[in-house]
Amino acid sequence: MQTMYVLIHKLAFPSISNLCVEHAAAKLGTRGSGLCKKCLTDVEISSPIQKRTAKLISKYEKQIEELTSQCNIKSDECSMAWSLVESTNQELDRLKMELHQKLVQTDNFEQVLDTQTDQLRKVSQNYENDKKLWAAAISNLERKIKAMKQEQALLSLEAHDCAHAIPDLSKMIEAVRALVAQCDDLKMKYHEEMAKRKKLHNIVQETKGNIRVFCRCRPLSKVETSSGYKCVVDFDGANDGDIGIINGGTAKKTFKFDRVYTPKDDQAEVYADASPLVTSVLDGYNVCIFAYGQTGTGKTFTMEGTERNRGVNYRTLEELFKIAEERKDTVTYNISVSVLEVYNEQIRDLLATSPSSKKLEIKQAGEGSHHVPGIVEAKVEDINEVWDVLQTGSNSRAVGSNNVNEHSSRSHCMLCIMVRAKNLINGDCTRSKLWLVDLAGSERLAKTDAQGDRLKEAQNINRSLSALGDVISALASRSSHIPYRNSKLTHLLQDSLGGDSKALMFVQISPSDNDASETLSSLNFASRVRGIELGPAKKQVDTAELQKVKQMLERSKQEAKLKEESLRKLEENCQNLESKAKGKEQLYKNLQDKVKELESQLDSKTHSQITSEKQQSQLSGKLKEKEEACTALQHKVT
Ligand code: ADP
Ligand code: MG
């Protein structure tokens, strides 16, 4: 650049022999002298050579001038070119900078491009994977849909079948309705029959004089077993109230009772049958319960029982208190008890604390009511007091006798429960009595013993038991005269036997062949009491009628049972069909839901596929743009 500048300067100021060129030309001019126009120096011109030289000089000067102007032009051009070069250089620098920036940018772009390419690759890879998965899922779904469609077709077939079955179902419903109606009809008939049966039963009871007779046989005692005594009682018909006696060679004798208890039946079972009768005392009825039989057959066991095995007396009071408690809001009961003994036609008060010399007599207290003045009536408030009172009575019985059983077997022990009731709703008051009588032993006196006190005792017992039998049979035959006054026993019971009163007799027997004749005697007595003498014809009629009713009842019951069974089966079938249809419907619904779910899944997958495709194409466009920009830049750089 410096060299170029020096060159340009030299061109601007040329010199010859240390003179300026113009000066030299003036010196060498054709005229004799002259002034150098440039440096104003006085120059002298002498010869032709000089003239020619001057000419040449002027020529050269002209040329120099030309050249100078040319040089000036050129140096102008040069400086212009120089400044152009400089500006070009600047431009070049700028471009270089720009190129550098572009290169950096390109690098960045390339990096971004790389990452985006990676992303794109990943996306496309994911897309490929997803595509595969979707394809698998779609084919799976298609398979499922196909299976579901098949199932749906099957279901619609079944639904069709069901729809076809509906007429059958309605037929079945009709049949069921008919059966129900029939069943109702049968039920009505059954109830009618039951009512008839009850009526007949009541008639039978009435013909029996409203006296029920139960036979109870005790077990063979240890003594009897060890003595080799055999059982003569046949219990085969016990459930039907039949009891048979097979004694030696004689033919079996059968007796009929309202109930027969075998030695296995316990106190609770015995009381359960007596319960409805005894509790009717709370409703204002007079009731008598007897235990009849020879000594040692279990009369006292049935009535009193033992502390661990309580009998009818205790259980009765227990139940009366229980019912009284249950009814306390509507009825108040006042319960008192007396315990008497009738021995040799004399009445003894077993609850009296001190023995009285005064004879106890029976007095008529009012219309149909009898009373023993002076007798202790112990008021019992609850069951806890009862056992004490009963024990007091039982213990008093033994006084004056060395052998308790011996004495007791010759007297009638009578527990009288007196009930006074007040109905709190209508104000009605009732008085009723329940007699629980442990009768004296019914055995006949052996002829050898027929003397003295024993004879008197036996006669009194005989008389009173016969009197009892007479009163009961007179009541059963609805006799106009009832011989109550023939014994103290029947006299005491006068207001409680007959009329609206109810009675129950436990006929106690021994199973031993040793007691067979006494057993037969007791059973005969019981049969008389039970009213068998009323005539076999009437009994047969009753039985036949009852039998007929029973059979009809059985048949109705059987039919009703069968109808109910078939009804139940039909109902079950209906229910099964219904539940099956419901199950299918549910399944169908579930499948439809599943199809919908899968379809929506498919939709969302397709949607996401489309968006990824769009993304991919956008990215590819961007990539293309970047690539183009990059190549353009590269072109520019080169
Ligand atoms: P009765 O009062 O008729 O003379 P008991 O009641 O004193 O007869 O009974 C005589 C014996 O037989 C007693 O030892 C009693 O415990 C027993 N006995 C009576 N009946 C039964 C029975 N059903 N089960 C078990 N033992 C009985
Ligand atoms: Mg006894």
Secondary structure blueprint with pairings:
Blueprint: H1 2-12, E1 15-16, E2 19-20, H2 21-27, E3 33-35, E4 42-44, H3 48-207, E5 211-217, H4 222-226, E6 233-234, E7 242-245, E8 253-256, E9 259-261, H5 267-279, E10 287-292, H6 299-303, H7 312-326, E11 331-343, E12 346-349, E13 363-366, E14 369-371, E15 378-379, H8 383-398, H9 404-408, E16 411-423, E17 429-438, H10 452-476, H11 488-492, E18 502-509, H12 516-530, H13 536-637
Parallel strand pairs: 5-9, 5-18, 10-17, 10-18
Antiparallel strand pairs: 1-2, 3-4, 6-7, 7-8, 11-12, 11-15, 11-16, 13-14, 16-17
The protein binds adenosine-5'-diphosphate and magnesium ion.
InterPro entries: Kinesin-like_fam, Kinesin_motor_CS, Kinesin_motor_dom, Kinesin_motor_dom_sf, P-loop_NTPase
Binding site for ATP: 293-300
Protein name: Kinesin-like protein
Please report which band the strand proportion falls in: under 5%, 5-15%, 15-25%, 25-35%, 35-45% or over 45%: 5-15%
Shape verdict: rod-shaped
Largest sheet: 9 strands, mixed
Low-confidence stretches: 1-13, 15-19, 26-30, 532-545
Total DSSP E strands: 18
> Which architecture of the largest domain per CATH?
3-Layer(aba) Sandwich
Bound molecules: adenosine-5'-diphosphate, magnesium ion
Main structural class: alpha+beta
CATH class of the largest domain: Alpha Beta
- Mean pLDDT over the residues: 80
Cα end-to-end separation: 27 Å
Q: Which range best describes the helical content: under 10%, 10-25%, 25-40%, 40-55%, 55-70% or over 70%?
A: 55-70%
